[in-house]
Amino acid sequence: MIKNTNFFEYHHENMIKNDLIIIKGKVLSWDKSDIEKNYGVNSWSERYFDISQDGKLEVCPNRDELKIPLADIIEEAKSQNVQFPIVLRFHDIIRNQLNEINQAFKRVISEASYNGKYFGVYPIKVNQMREVVEEVIHAGREHDFGLEAGSKPELLAVLAYNDNPNSLTVLNGYKDEEYMRLAMIGRKIGRKVIVIIEKYSELPLLVKVANEMNVKPLIGIRVKLNVDYSGKWAGSAGEKSKFGLSASEVIKCVNFLTEHGLIDCFNLLHFHIGSQVSDIQTFKDAITEAGYYYTKLCLNHGCKLEYIDVGGGLGVDYDGSKRASDSSRNYNIENYVSDIVWGLKQICDLDGVKHPHIVTESGRATVAYHSCVITNVVDTIKTNQNYNTDKKENEHIIVSNMRELFEEEALSEKSYQNIYNEALNIKKESHQAFKLGVLNLDEKAVVETLYQKLIYKISKIVKDLEFVPDGLMSLSNQISVQYLCNFSIFQSIVDHWAIDQLLPIVPLTRLNEEPKNKATIVDITCDSDGKIDKFISRDGVESTLLLHDLKKNEEYLLGIFLTGAYQDVMGDMHNLFGRVSEVHVYGDKSDPSGFYIEEVILGSNSSKVLKTMQYHPEEMAQKIKRLINAQIESSSIAPREGVKLADFYENSLSSYTYLRI
Ligand SMILES: *Cc1c(COP(=O)(O)O)cnc(C)c1O
């Protein structure tokens, strides 16, 4: 990284500090600010991750002085035979995020003299892993934090796992009679189960089932707000949303309940704008509109609502830019909570209606930080510059022309653009000449190698320029190195593929060393979409990430961060790679290493993923054995070798699906 700093100021320093190299009055070094500029750890990590003096990435599970190098955790996991890729899960982080949200609401509620309480619920669709849900319930007990479900299997899970009778169980999603019956079982076992009506016809169905089962339901109604929201999940709100009721439908529900003497059961007013709301103005508008729904229903329609549920949408700052863009947000938890509490207070006080209890359904913000994917770089794929380009007798003119350009001594900040254009021309000519049979394969290889070497020289000049012409921007891509990583994007970070979700990616070690390669990342699936060429950057999106050269006999590990929300559970079986091995880690100050591994859950083996596609691995092994036996009988395989081959096939069925390297 070149810095335009005062030569003389640094010249003196250079005599003491030998990691500074001075070229033409510029100081070349790699320091803390460069590390931050490249990987942004302090910007996106919310203090859960940091970098040690010796250049190691550390986790700070409780955001205090306990900092654990991720490489240490990986070492211990490997000693327990866990192979890459690995998901690291830090349950401490879930607890801290949960506390932060609850404490923010408690503080603002008290500051605002707000008369309602806060009852958060965790929507389990964001990460349904039992261990995650258990941690939420456990850490949330003191705050009466509950759960939210959006389907029958999720409902079955929350009924069994939310065992705190003071917390809420909120039920969203489309519902049938079985769903309603399960929900009423929740009421029978003493839980505060609130059924959210997402479309009108669900209401008579709920009332019928509740009557049959002789229980008093708790009913919520989801309203469709008219807020402007342009995020990636914009379909969740607005007039065209597939969810929620319009004003006239809400009144229809109220009338139905009044007629049936059940208006007391209408407890909660619900809305959900969409996930990852990046602009706080969207929340302000939504709170105002929903606030008036609440007061008008209470004042004019005889409703005795107790709760207002503002849904999810609390964003995560994936790129650390704090902007109102898709991968970021222009507010923090404190701002969000203040806008909800003060906003509702103002509207209720204006209309003289009692302050409702506040419910939120924050999933992403609760769990995104707690897990990351660790993958090992298997290889790098570079353009080959090692081919012998020595001049031969009777060299073809096209080859000579490229050679001349490459050897051009006048290559400078003034001439590089001209030389680049010329090189592009000659390369094109060489392709045509090859197709006409004029150039032979060796000559083609020499031209291409010289071109690559020249591009590399030019890119070094371009790197130092303040202004780079458009046509040369792609230069960094031309010389970028592909890092082949042992994981599947479709399993571990499917949103990167599906909706261009950006996630922070950082090497676990060597952060003190200047990385020299502009890299893109490719996974091990046989899919050309299995790649990462969009990286977080404070100035927008970068097409490459700076990474270090691989060293012989030394692992190079990359962490992909903030994968705890959605990514963990939405992955698919592309190429049958299946679930990744998991390591659950807790910080422990009394332990010499600062942590302990509480649990290891091994990822899918081949047999398991094949079974999900209706294969019968045992039969497959039998088939292979029979085929080998036939070869033994015809004497083309020796019996001892045949047994070994059959065993190898069988053992492979029970081994991890990813590369063992
Ligand atoms: C998905 C969903 C949530 C979670 O939203 P986040 O943005 O992850 O907080 C909350 N409520 C409902 C109804 C949802 O569908």
Which CATH first-tier class of the largest domain would you pick? Alpha Beta
Count of β-strands:
26
Query: What is the helix tally?
Result: 23
* Percent helix: 40-55%
Distance between the termini: 33 Å
Mean pLDDT: 92
Describe the model.
The protein is of the alpha/beta class and 661 residues long. The chain folds into 4 domains: 92-370, TIM Barrel; 372-381 and 477-604, Beta Barrel (Lyase, Ornithine Decarboxylase, Chain A, domain 1), CATH 2.40.37.10; 397-461, Methane Monooxygenase Hydroxylase, Chain G, domain 1 (Up-down Bundle); 607-653, no CATH class. The protein has 23 helices and 26 strands. The strands form 5 sheets. Strands 7, 16, 17, 18, 19, 20, 23, 24, 25 and 26 form a 10-stranded mixed beta sheet that branches. A hairpin with an 8-residue loop joins strand 5 and strand 6 (68-69). Helix 5 runs parallel beside helix 12 (333-351). The model is unreliable at 1-27 (pLDDT under 50). The structure holds pyridoxal-5'-phosphate.
Keyword list:
661 residues, alpha/beta, TIM Barrel, Lyase, Ornithine Decarboxylase, Chain A, domain 1, Methane Monooxygenase Hydroxylase, Chain G, domain 1, eight-stranded parallel sheet, 26 strands, 40% helix, disordered N terminus, binds pyridoxal-5'-phosphate
Give a brief outline of the structure.
With 661 residues, the chain is α/β, with parallel strands linked by helices. It contains 23 helices and 26 strands. It has 4 domains: 92-370, TIM Barrel (Alpha-Beta Barrel); 372-381 and 477-604, Lyase, Ornithine Decarboxylase, Chain A, domain 1 (Beta Barrel), CATH 2.40.37.10; 397-461, Methane Monooxygenase Hydroxylase, Chain G, domain 1, CATH 1.20.58; 607-653, no CATH class.
